[in-house]
């Protein structure tokens, strides 16, 4: 009986992670992390809920990114590195450890965005969960650039100007990234270093082109499928 229940539970879990419902779960975690945890807890949140939810995002990203076992193994290896370096920064701290943690996050998010985009915009029926997955890709792009900005800030003092000044603007980098991604540009944070400015321009272009081309195409396909059914 116990063996049967374990087998049934394993099959239900396998069906969940192989379906597109994992994309919606990833989106929920990203929304909580970006729009609630960081704004409410700020820099102090890194030692608590922000780190917990960040860890959940890494784990959820393993299953939501791809259906192939080999790809998941590779992404899981990167997630372990990113997770270990992140918690090392929480427990030990220091600029060097923090830079390593941010760099590991950049690598993980690059790989995750690549394979998640391939899954969301690949062949197959367009479902509402795939549209939610496309939104998750957009939010992951914001996190990717936020971690990249953080690497630059930690490596090159004075690469960004803040108003008011901040010694370790972790939450501010997330805010700055999404302000740039959505091309709002309030001007309270300014990129000064040339490489930082290049990343800002790249993110602004991606922020304009992704919703207008890829996301709009996916929504159009979904609406067309509904109209034909």
Summarize the structure.
The longest helix has 35 residues, at 194-228.
Q: Runs with pLDDT <50, length 5+? A: none
Question: Mean of residue pLDDT?
Answer: 81
Order of helices and strands: HHHHHHEHEH
Widest sheet: strand order?
1-2
Given the structure, what is the number of helices? 8
Give the CA-CA distance, first to last residue: 42 Å
User: How does the major sheet shape up?
Assistant: 2 strands, antiparallel
Beta-sheet strand percentage? under 5%
Structural class by sheet pairing and helices? mainly alpha
Morphology call: globular
Task: Give the total of beta strands.
Answer: 2
Proportion in helices: over 70%
Q: Nearest-angstrom radius of gyration?
A: 19 Å
Question: Topology, please?
Answer:
Elements: H1 2-18, H2 21-41, H3 49-65, H4 69-91, H5 95-120, H6 128-155, E1 160-162, H7 170-181, E2 189-191, H8 194-228
Antiparallel strand pairs: 1-2
Describe the structure in your own words.
By secondary structure, the protein is an all-alpha fold. The chain has one domain (22-228). Helices cover 78% and strands 3% of the residues. It contains eight helices and two strands, in the order ααααααβαβα. It has helices at 2-18, 21-41, 49-65, 69-91, 95-120, 128-155, 170-181, 194-228; strands at 160-162, 189-191. The protein has a two-stranded antiparallel sheet. The longest helix is centred in the C-terminal third of the chain and has 35 residues, at 194-228. The mean pLDDT is 81.
